[in-house]
Amino acid sequence: MSQRAQDSLWSLSRGQRLRYLCAIAALAAGILLAFGLPLATRAAIDGPLTQALGRAGALPAEDNWLQELGVRLGAGVRGQLWLAGVIFLLLAALSGICLYFKTRLAASASEGMVCRFRERLFGHITRLPMSWLDDADTGDLVQRCTSDMETVRAFLSTQILEIARALLLVVLVTPILFALDVQLAMVALALLPVIVAFAYVFFSRIKSLFKTMDEAEGAMTTVLQENLTAIRVVRAFGRQEHERQKFEVRSANYRVHHQRFIKLLGLYWSTSDVLSMGQMGLVLIVGAWFTKSGDLSVGTLTAFLEYEALIIWPVRQLGRVLSEAGKAVVSMRRLREVLAVEEESALEGNTATVLPPLTGAIEVRDLSFAYKGGKPVLRNVSLSLAAGQTLALIGRPGSGKSTLVQLLLRLYDYEEGSIRLDGQELSSLPRQFVRSQFGPVLQEPFLYSRSLEDNLKIGAPRAGSESLHAAAGAAAIHDSIVEFQHGYETEVGERGVTLSGGQRQRVAIARALLCEPTILILDDSLSAVDTVTESAILAALTERRGQGTTILIAHRLSSVMHADLILVLEAGRVVESGSHQSLILEDGPYQRLWRVQGYLEDEIQSEGGRKA
């Protein structure tokens, strides 16, 4: 099945189609029962009411089945007006019950479809390439997953059946109108094509307007989401007024487009009201003339007007229905734009069901890489690391250190050069398998708004308490956790806001260690901890030497000096490589950096000695 077919409403309705059919059947039953209401009214008027007024004796014979049915009903209730009322109430009650089940079944079916659609969309987003997510607007994605999805749900639960109701009424009532009176039926349907055409024009206008309005709302949501996420930064720099003004601009833009939408809607309602009431008035004037001339009974005219109302108002509602349909079309198009983006393939390359664990050997040859539309970030990078060794990457910000790590994790794919893990080309290995071999601690550690234990177990949900405490101890965070009132059950708030920067980094390190990865990545993950804590963590990592490969990215040379291989990167190129002992003997960037940091450390130590 093609991707487009999988995302069609027909495919998503699987498992809900019977409910929809039952809803349509209940709608049809309700409409058929409603057809009896005008006949009951006609029977009451042309029967006992006419007799009571002394206007008629026997009811005249009629020349078609519908009028004959009216005559029989009128004869049946002659002199018993209460019976006509009972029939009317019974038909109305049964019709209401049918419409209740129609609404309930349609709502249940639409909720099931949209739930499946929402889950499909969310799962798809989680598997999209990082290169696409980098360019995506988070607020706009939220808008599509919420507001656009709600628009589709409303259309499925209500508007589809409203369209079916209008069509059924027109198809079924039109023959009844002609059966009652051919000439009056032609008058009753005279303005119907005009109303339908006006509704169609409105539908075409509303689609483009709603798309603009939806995008404006997405831009407004983006500003809101960014400010809520970075509220501490906003307040720390006193940017509340600036951000408020920025939000006002987005809000005003959304208001302008929404007002245009409301004006167009108001124009439709007012015009359609005039057309609909004009249609009803025309029928009443012509019907009164026919009644006065004796060609039409009062009961028949009353029934005719009721049948006319049955179709004219649903047809008038087509404007609203079509406006919702237009919004749903735009929303579906926006949702499909996301679903049309090709996912990262979890089973590309090697499709073996079971792959042996890696040992951690890494070989990079002539690797070059540039982000989409940007300059090269890595240029001809090469390195060779045996399993169990430690690699350290240092260099200025933007020199390509984190990019190399992201390529190893297959967050991005390279096209020039080669990366081999245990002799196997990285691009030939399934992404999920590759990532299962790594334990990454990225530059900005992210914690969920859950307990510390839940955050630590994200990569190893079945880990026991002993392993959990051991990993936390190695990351020098265990003692801090047990001092919290609720220990490992402490809730950390959104993005770990209740923890300090150093605590978040150490929790992220413990989370990676708990997975027991083949390759551990620490991307500038010790920048927020003090030197004593850093030493404790490095000592724990030293004990891990030989058990797994480690990749360190740091700016403090004290963090990398024990690495087996140190690479110094500048502008994406490897300008120096070797061990700490060999690099400090060479006149180069590493030696100069060592001197600067060494002088500073000596000064700090001497200053501390004078104070003591």
Write up what this structure looks like.
- The protein is α/β, with parallel strands linked by helices.
- It folds into three domains: 3-339, Up-down Bundle (ABC transporter transmembrane region fold), CATH 1.20.1560; 355-437 and 519-604, P-loop containing nucleotide triphosphate hydrolases (Rossmann fold), CATH 3.40.50.300; 443-516, Rossmann fold (3-Layer(aba) Sandwich), CATH 3.40.50.
- The protein has 22 helices and ten strands.
- A six-stranded mixed sheet has the order 6-7-8-3-9-10, with helices on both faces. It has a four-stranded antiparallel sheet with strand order 2-1-4-5, with helices on one face.
- Helix 3 (17-52) runs parallel beside helix 7 (138-180) and helix 9 packs parallel to helix 12 (298-339).
- The radius of gyration is 37 Å and the shape is elongated.
What gap, in angstroms, lies between the N and C termini?
76 Å
- SS strand fraction: 5-15%
- Can you count the helices? 22
| Number of DSSP strand runs | 10
CATH class value of the largest domain: Mainly Alpha
Ranges with pLDDT <50 over ≥5 residues? 1-6, 49-63, 73-79
